[in-house]
Amino acid sequence: MAQLHPNCRYMFKHAMKAIEILITYPCGIVERLKHSGEELLLIPIEVLPEDLQCPYLEIKIYLTKYKAKPEARFPYDTDLRETMRRRRAQTAAPMAQKVWSFYKQYENSLK
Question: Which domain of life is it from (predicted)?
Answer without folding.
Answer: Bacteria
